[in-house]
Amino acid sequence: MNLSMFMLLRKGLTAAAILSIILGLNTVSTLFGGEHPGQMAPRTEEEKPRITKENAAKFAEEYVRKNATDGVFKYHDKNTGKDMELTLDRVHRERLSPTKTDEYFVCADFKGKDGNRYDLDFFVQGTDKDNLRVDKTSISVHKVNGKENYTWDYNKKKDLWEKKAIIVEKEYPEPAKREHPGNP
After folding, report:
1. How far is Cα 122 from Cα 124, in angstroms, rounded to an integer?
2. Residue 64 near residue 73 (C-beta atoms within 8 A)
3. Would residue 148 count as lying in a domain?
4. Is 89 within the bounds of a domain?
């Protein structure tokens, strides 16, 4: 094998190694991060939930219906200070995810009386379908008109899902240019 073939082989193997590392990191990111909790979380056999996705979905719909007045579910958004009047559009059954034993993540779409569309996240907890509850402290506005307020990351060390705020850069008007401070 001559030197030029050796160099080509070396470059090819280096590129393959770099690609493997990138794909490997991407796999780790996919396993432990996502738009919704539980989507990619590894689960062990003994952590299988005792409630089903359908149990959680039906309970979520029932919870909203029971806590609505004339079909309007009222929710106070702690982050914006807004009181919202919402109508349930649907529970995303395809996004329901067991996050730990006896707990499911729920994502639901609502229509607001203000004309906006809201995606609320919350957790349904319980040991069986007849013993379910919503963790009211976990309800939060994930999206407004499709724009995310946060994403979810799995913290392997703490063994829990954490919200990660989406940093939005604010646009500031360009300050007036002055030759010297204090002089117009």
Report:
1. 7
2. yes
3. yes
4. yes
In this structure, is residue 57 part of a structural domain?
A: yes
User: How many angstroms separate the CA atoms of 125 and 134, rounded?
Assistant: 6
Residue from 153, 157, 164 nearest 38 by CA = 153
Tens of pLDDT along 59-113? 999 999 999 999 999 999 998 999 999 999 999 999 888 888 888 999 999 999 9
Q: What is the pTM of this model?
A: 0.65
Domain count, the chain: 1
- Residue 94 backbone phi and psi in degrees, to 5: -70, -15
Domain coverage including residue 59: 35-165
Is residue 26 domain-resident? no
Gap between the Cα atoms of 167 and 153, Å rounded: 15
